[in-house]
Design goal:
Elements (H helix, E strand, L loop, with lengths): L2 H32 L6 H19 L2 H22 L9 H23 L15 E3 L5 E3 H23 L1 H11 L1 H6 L4 H23 L10 H15 L4 H21 L4 H15 L8
Antiparallel strand pairs: 1-2
Helix pairs in contact: 1-5, 1-8, 1-9, 1-10, 2-3, 2-4, 2-8, 2-9, 3-8, 5-6, 5-8, 6-8, 9-10, 9-11, 10-11
C-alpha cells in the first residue's frame, strides 16, 4: 500500500472515530454524570438518520435539516428525561436497563409507523459532492471532510461548555458532589434534563450527518451502540476526553484492520479493549 492509500485510510479512520466520539460523548455524559445505563442510545442514532432522510425530502437542504433535527432532538431528550428517566435515577441499574431496552422497541415501532421499514438513501448536498485530489489518480470526498469538521466543532463546543461555562461548572459539581451541589442551591433535576437532552442531541446529529455515508435502515442503531460502549469502556466511564481518545483509537484500529487483517477485523477492536483493561482497568482516563 502506497503513501496516498495510507493517507486515505488514515482520514477514513479519523472520520469514523470522530463520528463515534459524537455518539460516545452523549453516552458517557448520560452514564458518567447521571448514572443511567442507556441502551436506547443507538436508537437515537437511527432516529437521526431517518430524520435526515425525511427532513431533506421536505426542505431539500441537509445543513438546515441537521439544525432542525438538533432542535427536535433536544426537545425529545427533555421530554424523555421528564417523563421516564428522572423516575429511575435512584433505581437499580437492572431497572434502567429494562427501561431503556423497552424504549428501543418503542422507538423502533414509532419509526416503523412514521416512515415504514424500507431502506433509504440520503443524497450528499451538491455543494459537498465533489472530491479533493490527493494524487493524480486518488481523491477524497469533500463530504467526509465536512463530517469531520462538524464532529470537531461539536467536540470543541462540548469541551467549552463543560470547562468554561457556569453550566459546565454545575454539571461537574453535580457529577462529583451531588449532595453538596444541591445544598448550594443547584437544581439537579434541571441539570440532569439538560445533560440528557444534550446526549440525545449528539446521537441524533451523528445519525443525521452519517446518513449520506451509508443506507438508512431499521435496526441500524444496534451495531453502533456496541462500538459506543467499547469506546466508553476504553476511554474511562464518565470521561469526555477519554471518549475522544478512545474513539479515534477504535476508528483507526477498525479501519486499518479491515484493510490489512480482514480475517481478524471483527475482533481487533475487542482485543484493543481487552489490552487496555489489562493495563488500566478503569480505562485510559478517569472522569
Amino acid at each position: 500500500m502506497d503513501l496516498a492509500n495510507i493517507l486515505i485510510q488514515l482520514l477514513n479512520g479519523v472520520q469514523y472515530g470522530l463520528l463515534l466520539f459524537m455518539l460516545a460523548a452523549g453516552l458517557t455524559l448520560i452514564f458518567g454524570i447521571m448514572g443511567v445505563v442507556n441502551l436506547a442510545h443507538g436508537s437515537f442514532y437511527m432516529l437521526g438518520a431517518y430524520l435526515a432522510w425525511w427532513l431533506v425530502g421536505l426542505i431539500d437542504s441537509l445543513p438546515l435539516a441537521i439544525a432542525v433535527g438538533a432542535g427536535l432532538a433536544l426537545l425529545l431528550g427533555w421530554l424523555l428525561e421528564w417523563g421516564l428517566f428522572r423516575h429511575f435515577y435512584q433505581r437499580d441499574h437492572l431497572d434502567q436497563v429494562l427501561l431503556t431496552f423497552g424504549l428501543i422497541y418503542l422507538l423502533e415501532e414509532a419509526r416503523s409507523l412514521l416512515w415504514g421499514d424500507d431502506v433509504h438513501a440520503v443524497a450528499v448536498p451538491p455543494a459537498l459532492a465533489g472530491s479533493v485530489a490527493l494524487t493524480d489518480t486518488l481523491s477524497y470526498p469533500i463530504y467526509r471532510l465536512f463530517v469531520m469538521g462538524v464532529c470537531v466543532l461539536l467536540a470543541l463546543a462540548l469541551w467549552a461548555l463543560i470547562t468554561h461555562t457556569r453550566l459546565g461548572m454545575r454539571i461537574r459539581a453535580g457529577a462529583f458532589q451531588r449532595e453538596m451541589a444541591e445544598a448550594l442551591g443547584i437544581n439537579i433535576r434541571v441539570l440532569h434534563a439538560v445533560v440528557f437532552a444534550l446526549g440525545v442531541m449528539l446521537a441524533v446529529v451523528a445519525g443525521m450527518v452519517a446518513a449520506p455515508l451509508a443506507s438508512v435502515y431499521p435496526g441500524m442503531g444496534a451495531p453502533i451502540l456496541i462500538m459506543c460502549f467499547v469506546v466508553v469502556v476504553i476511554g474511562g466511564i464518565g470521561s469526555v476526553r477519554g471518549a475522544l481518545v478512545a474513539a479515534l483509537l477504535v476508528g483507526l484500529v477498525d479501519t486499518f484492520g479491515k484493510v490489512w487483517l480482514p480475517q481478524l477485523a471483527s475482533v481487533l477492536v475487542y482485543l484493543l479493549m481487552a489490552l487496555v483493561l489489562l493495563v488500566r482497568p478503569e480505562g485510559l482516563f478517569r472522569r
